[in-house]
Design brief:
This protein is an alpha+beta fold.
């Protein structure tokens, strides 16, 4: 075989790959495909000088990266403005007609994939780079990880342009997601909340071999750059991508009117549950590319496109029982034990009922048929009771009088909704959940130490208090189910890594009552070191903006407790090194000296990221709104803080305004 025959075999394998992944219509068996791939591998072993980047064997590299280099996007990757109603879609259409001076505008509509936005660049038909959206201006170079996606060709087919940069979405199919979560739960690790989080977490892995095991997929929906200049419409762009061998969005249509757009949306929503991947709506785009260019962008969004979001998926199921869960601070939370039902990417068998008042307000009873949905597509919640299906034997639920774990009589505090178990030192449920929270991502962030593994460590008697985590030995871990050499090494390395911790994260991990992320950061900033926490008085804490009497009293009580002090000292003795993180200051910035409160879900940043950005620019973040608050940063589904800000006349910042000020 000569080199030309070798390249022809590569092309043949890619052709079969395209039929399998893009057309969903394979023309040869898996066994025959594997035989062709084996021949190719043998040829490349004999002629390593022939191997080129577009070979089907060059998907997974052998090296683990030390991080992802940042790449600036030649064309910005912006987000879409959201619409939720017919009126908002009509406003968008009218706006496009007005800006383009046309009575009729042709729109392209497609599925809105719920995945991770990426851009992939090909030169001379060969994949050269894959980059995440990042902040829209620059993203992470994840080329080694994106090459592992089986449906993504490393070499284009057909009459492709010399340069092609395509925009797409990486996602995890529903079946793959379900299997991944089964494996994580079996290993005692917390499951992913939804397929989007799973896909995002997978792309962040530094070892491409591990990424390949996650079986991610990709679809493309647009072109950022192409050197031929022949493509004139968005619809044509998607069709061209398919001709070049790229997987594209499954549903696509051209629409001339509001009615046509709504018909497309209705058709898609009916198919939503049967699709093999998650979607959360449709995208509506001006079809003509020259019109898109003319319309341009506004802030962080494309002016020529919007997302029409579907309402959160709901499902109906029956409550088998209402149990009570004891939290790390002793709070008793009612939980609905449900007949398992599949919803928005996962099987739901439990849903929090928050508190006794919530159960009474919604009149939730055992055996009730209820409607559930995932709040923010993450946390299952009971929306309402289907009272038409209520059993005549049902009776109102009552909160227990004694802790279900230790039997201690529960306590109620005037003015508080929460019911607590006051037996904080003798209640095994509280201690277990304190440990689970301590090692969690929000706390010390110890990888490979999920709730089930913590439970096993406690059951074996290896961990009785927080500091025992740092005394664990390999021989103890080998006694746990499914723990082999590699898993033991991984966990011990992660425990060691967690010892270098920011003081605010350490304070949060300790589980002080009423102390959340913002308050922990305020305490760390005020104290500066662990020893100083012991000496803070109520009066000194009240001088810290954002700390009220209830929090101050709780903090003083916690750090004055001899048991708590002994435990903190043990943690320090075993090598935990809390320190105050030094942040770069932006003098003269509009945020300098200003106090922020965050509410609702942000689209471009996590809460932690937004807090860091504010602090880097000299601002402060508080957990409560007062007259001293300068800005309330509002995301989607804001809570009561938004209402209070409006009442007090505090400046409201939308996310796009926040980004502009950054």
């Amino acid at each position: 075989m000569n080199q030309e025959d070798y390249r022809q075999l590569c092309a043949e394998i890619w052709e079969h790959n395209w039929h399998y992944y893009v057309e969903n219509a394979p023309v040869i068996s898996d066994r025959e495909f594997d035989r062709l791939l084996a021949i190719l591998i043998a040829i490349e072993r004999d002629h390593p000088e022939w191997i080129f980047p577009g070979s089907p064997t060059q998907r997974v590299g052998e090296t683990v990266t030390g991080g992802f280099p940042v790449v600036r996007h030649k064309t910005p990757m912006l987000s879409l403005a959201n619409t939720y109603s017919r009126d908002e879609v009509e406003e968008f259409i009218a706006r496009m007609q007005k800006l383009l001076h046309k009575k009729e505008v042709l729109f392209e509509t497609e599925l809105k994939m719920d995945g991770i936005a990426v851009t992939v660049r090909y030169e001379e038909g060969i994949l050269v780079r894959g980059v995440t959206r990042g902040n829209g201006r620059e993203g992470d170079n994840i080329t080694s990880n994106i090459r592992t996606i089986a449906s993504l060709p490393l070499e284009l087919r057909g009459n492709y342009p010399r340069v092609l940069e395509a925009r797409g979405e990486v996602f995890m199919p529903k079946k793959v997601f379900a299997e991944l979560n089964r494996q994580k739960q079996k290993a005692g690790e917390p499951p992913f909340a939804n397929p989007r989080n799973a896909a995002g977490g997978s792309l962040k892995l530094l070892d491409p071999r591990q990424v390949a095991k996650r079986k991610l997929a990709i679809v493309f929906y647009g072109i950022a750059e192409e050197s031929s200049g022949k493509i004139k419409s968005h619809y044509e762009a998607v069709q061209s991508l398919k001709k070049f061998g790229l997987p594209v969005v499954e549903e696509q249509a051209r629409c001339h009117s509001m009615n046509e757009i709504l018909k497309f949306a209705e058709k898609v929503e009916k198919r939503r549950k049967s699709l093999p991947y998650e979607i959360d709506g449709i995208v509506i785009k001006v079809d003509d590319l020259s019109s898109q260019k003319k319309l341009g962008i506004t802030g962080k969004n494309y002016r020529w496109a919007v997302a029409y979001k579907f309402s959160a998926e709901q499902a109906e199921t029956k409550i088998k029982a209402i149990t009570v869960q004891v939290g790390r601070t002793g709070v008793l939370t009612p939980v609905a034990e449900l007949e398992p039902v599949y919803l928005a990417g996962s099987t739901i068998s439990r849903a929090t009922l928050h508190n006794e008042d919530e159960v009474k307000r919604k009149d939730i009873r055992v055996h009730d048929v209820v409607v559930i949905e995932k709040g923010g597509d993450v946390i299952p919640k009971v929306v309402e009771v289907n009272k038409a299906k209520r059993s005549s034997k049902s009776t109102p639920w009552k909160m227990v009088d004694h802790c279900p774990d230790c039997g201690h009589r529960v306590a109620r505090t005037a003015g508080e909704v929460a019911v607590r178990c006051p037996n904080k030192l003798g209640c095994p449920a509280q201690e277990l959940r304190r440990i689970i929270f301590f090692v969690s991502k929000a706390g010390m962030d110890i990888d490979f130490l999920g709730p089930k593994i913590v439970e096993q460590l406690v059951e074996h008697g290896f961990v009785k208090q927080l500091s025992d985590i740092y005394r664990l030995k390999a021989d103890q871990l080998f006694e746990l189910p499914n723990f082999k050499e590699k898993s033991v090494q991984n966990l011990l390395a992660s425990i060691e890594k967690s010892k270098d911790v920011d003081l605010s994260r350490f304070i949060l991990a300790l589980g002080v009552k009423y102390v959340g992320v913002e308050t922990a950061e305020l305490l760390a900033g005020r104290a500066g070191e662990v020893d100083a926490l012991y000496k803070l008085s109520t009066e000194e804490l009240l001088e810290v903006e954002g700390v009220g009497p209830k929090v101050a009293e709780s903090v003083v009580e916690f750090f004055a407790d001899p048991e708590n002090r002994q435990e903190i000292n043990r943690l320090l003795k075993y090598g935990v090194r809390p320190r105050v993180k030094q942040v770069k200051s932006h003098k003269g910035h509009p945020f300098n000296g200003k106090t922020f409160v965050l509410t609702g879900s942000l689209e471009h940043y996590t809460r932690d990221q937004a807090r860091s950005l504010i602090k880097e620019r000299g601002g402060k973040v508080s957990s409560s709104v007062s007259k001293a608050t300068n800005f309330v940063l509002v995301g989607s589904d804001p809570g009561s803080k938004y209402d209070k800000a409006k009442k007090l006349g505090v400046k409201i910042l939308l996310e796009k305004e926040f980004i502009a000020l950054l």
